[in-house]
Design a protein that fits this description.
Mean pLDDT: 95
CATH architecture of one domain: Alpha Horseshoe
Low-confidence stretches: none
Keywords: ANK repeat, Repeat
Number of strands: 0
Number of helices: 16
Radius of gyration: 24 Å
Helix content: 40-55%
């Protein structure tokens, strides 16, 4: 029995290497030699061959494994499936194949993430479209309360933001610390996304748990064009965070003189002071 276990372990280690490198002939040989198609590969946090081949984009191997009986929704030690890895790494043909073979489109891993959240975060527009077409929940949240819209807005994926909004994503859905997509886009300087969110009705003065509005975030990080856009959209120039600091103070503390001038020109209270 020990010898059999050692043989299986050796086969699985070789299978892991072949799936990682895309050696289709070697995968075929190992399966014929008795490597279990759904075996957990050593040193891979519980991944199966299908998981590894999907992660590395080896379409022919994925097909071979599925034809050989690989479980399409097998999970690793963190609850992720092959669909997660293919979606995260942008392997469109593999995502399509896995879905065609019955992969669960809204499966969640141990962190509450879904394939749609990963594809949205990493900017894979075609995969986002495909997952939505197959019924993925547009407003699904992970354990950090992030939606696909929040992640795409934070990472600057304009086409995906547009697509998610067109598919009914909630524009003011609040994630961790009650920040919305507008907060994230304003903080990271994604001007086109800020414009789009405002055009779709995002609340310009929505406040996070610490009281920050999008204007405070943009002022703090020096995004003058976004500050101008938010003010033009009616943002309160004197809104304060939980420490009582308005945008004028935060821009001044961060050394953004152009934003300080703009805020003053727009009527921000010149006597605003940091209570601390």
């Amino acid at each position: 029995m020990a010898a059999a276990a050692a043989t299986e372990d050796k086969l699985l280690r070789a299978l892991a290497d072949a799936c990682d490198s895309g050696n289709t002939a070697e995968v075929s040989r190992l399966l014929s030699a008795g490597a279990p198609v759904n075996g957990k590969l050593p040193g891979t946090y519980g991944s199966t061959a299908l998981f590894r081949a999907s992660e590395h984009g080896h379409t022919d191997i994925v097909r071979m494994l599925l034809d050989g009986g690989a479980s399409v929704d097998a999970t690793n030690d963190y609850g992720s499936t092959a669909l997660f890895r293919a979606s995260e790494h942008g392997h469109t043909d593999i995502v399509r194949m896995l879905l065609d073979r019955g992969a669960s489109v809204d499966a969640t891993n141990d962190y509450g993430s879904t394939a749609l959240l990963l594809a949205s975060e990493h900017g894979h527009t075609d995969i986002v479209r495909m997952l939505l077409d197959r019924g993925a929940s547009v407003d699904a949240t992970n354990d950090f309360r992030s939606t696909a819209l929040l992640l795409a807005s934070e990472h600057g994926h304009t086409d995906i933001v547009r697509m998610l909004l067109d598919r009914g994503a909630k524009v003011d859905a609040a994630g961790r610390y009650a920040f919305t997509a507008l907060h994230r886009a304003a903080e990271y300087g994604h001007t086109d996304i800020v414009r789009m969110l405002l055009d779709r009705g995002a609340k310009v003065d929505a406040a996070g748990r610490d009281g920050s509005t999008a204007l405070l975030c943009a002022s703090d990080h020096g995004h003058a064009d976004i500050v101008r856009m938010l003010l033009d959209s009616g943002a309160d120039a004197d809104a304060t965070d939980e420490c009582g600091r308005p945008a004028l103070v935060r821009a001044s503390e961060s050394g953004h003189a152009d934003i300080v001038r703009m805020l003053l020109d727009r009527g921000a209270n010149v006597d605003a002071a940091d209570p601390g």
